[in-house]
């Protein structure tokens, strides 16, 4: 039970649950009356905008609250395919039926841990995928993707530690000063933290497999995680721990990627342009609306986890904690440069390229020419009127 995000893998669950794979399709049934149809030709009419009959969203991991916007537009007429690991229903936005269906597919173990750009290259039916910016840097050729709107503004990736084992430490650098191992599942984070002077290269341990076992047994180590999951899980759901952890965001050390922005395959951008003109603003607003009232969507997320039976454990408590933390800890905000929600900052994109291309090249993850910053995103479809905090 571990989470992959971009080029990194992280733990976002407490206990490995052994379960047989489910099978067949189960109908969840209408949970509410059918939504009224969107006015023809209006901004919520996706059927009239050239969108596919089914808009397919591809996630990079199991259902969780960090993906809330995608699940929030799944209408009450949804059905769950436990064998294929997907949920499908009418695409309902702002209370109206947009005229098309939506299908949300999880990633990670559900598709052999294939990167989202690789899945998108193999399957033309995928409309948008969740692709971290560092992962987009390595997706070239027929796997190249273009981000069209962010959903989270700041990465919730953290390094965590036991406060009792590192007394007084309030930063990663302070906690790591005693030489303790920094345990991750990939080498991008330790490379970045080493370059920033937060740890020594000799402290890097990339053996993290996503369970809490080692941290519980050896609380001297530092370990990767998510601010939107591990603080709640370790304190409330791991009986061998059941106490707070300390942590710091890796973003404080330059982990400046956009986490899981919605991206389209680069060679399909023109064909989907009409659809994206209406779909992108819908997804901008969907994230804002979800975080204002996450309960219904969180219930769906937990239902999906229970139906898929992949060994992933995710409680309603974690989902509610995550939705709250996304806002209160500043992971979901308006773009600081423009004040628009979901918009990309060109200067930040250039900084991401400048920071991560040398790391990826050194590690052999980017053997060819580096993409330009401008090729990684577009603000063409962003509605500048959509902002958090507006009625």
TrEMBL record:
Keywords attached to this Swiss-Prot or TrEMBL record, sorted alphabetically, are: Signal
Top-rank lineage group of the source organism:
Bacteria
Report the residue ranges that make up the UPF0033 domain in this protein: 44-68
Q: Give the signal peptide, or none.
A: 1-27
User: Per the record's keyword annotation, is Cell inner membrane included, yes or no?
Assistant: no
Signal among keywords: yes
**Gene3D superfamilies (alphabetical):** Periplasmic binding protein-like II (3.40.190.10)
Name this protein carries in UniProt:
Nitrate ABC transporter substrate-binding protein
């Amino acid at each position: 039970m571990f989470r992959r995000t971009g080029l990194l893998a992280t733990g976002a669950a407490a206990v490995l649950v052994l379960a047989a794979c489910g099978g067949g399709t189960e109908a969840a049934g209408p949970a509410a009356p059918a939504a009224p149809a969107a006015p023809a030709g209006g901004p919520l009419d996706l059927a009239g905008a050239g969108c596919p009959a089914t808009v397919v969203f591809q996630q990079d991991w199991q259902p969780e609250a960090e993906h809330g916007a995608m699940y929030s537009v799944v209408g009450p007429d949804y059905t769950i395919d436990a064998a294929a690991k997907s949920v499908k229903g009418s695409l309902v936005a702002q209370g109206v039926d947009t005229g098309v269906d939506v299908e949300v597919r999880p990633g990670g173990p559900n598709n052999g841990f294939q990167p989202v750009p690789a899945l998108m290259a193999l399957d033309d039916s995928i409309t948008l995928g969740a692709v971290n910016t560092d992962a987009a840097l390595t997706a070239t050729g027929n796997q190249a993707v273009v981000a069209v709107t962010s959903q989270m503004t700041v990465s919730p990736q953290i390094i965590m530690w036991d406060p009792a084992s590192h007394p007084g430490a309030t930063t990663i650098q302070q906690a790591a000063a005693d030489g303790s191992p920094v345990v991750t599942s990939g080498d991008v984070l330790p490379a970045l933290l080493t370059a920033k002077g937060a740890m020594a290269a000799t402290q890097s341990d990339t053996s993290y497999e996503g369970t809490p076992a080692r941290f519980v047994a050896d609380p001297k180590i530092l370990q990767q995680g998510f601010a939107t999951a591990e603080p709640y899980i370790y304190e409330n759901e791991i009986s061998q721990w059941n106490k707070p952890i300390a942590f710091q965001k890796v973003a404080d050390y330059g982990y400046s990627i956009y986490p899981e922005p919605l991206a389209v395959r680069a060679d399909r951008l023109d064909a989907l342009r009409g659809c994206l003109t209406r779909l992108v603003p819908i997804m901008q607003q969907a994230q804002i609306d979800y975080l204002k009232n996450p309960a219904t969507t969180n219930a769906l997320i937990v239902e999906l986890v229970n139906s898929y039976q992949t060994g992933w454990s995710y409680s309603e408590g974690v989902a509610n904690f995550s939705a709250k933390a996304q806002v209160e800890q500043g992971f979901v905000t308006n773009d600081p440069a423009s004040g628009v929600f979901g918009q990309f900052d060109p200067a930040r994109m250039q900084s991401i390229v400048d920071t991560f291309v040398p790391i990826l090249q050194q590690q052999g993850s980017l053997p060819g020419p580096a993409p330009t910053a401008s090729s990684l995103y577009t603000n063409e479809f962003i509605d500048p009127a959509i902002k958090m905090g507006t009625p």
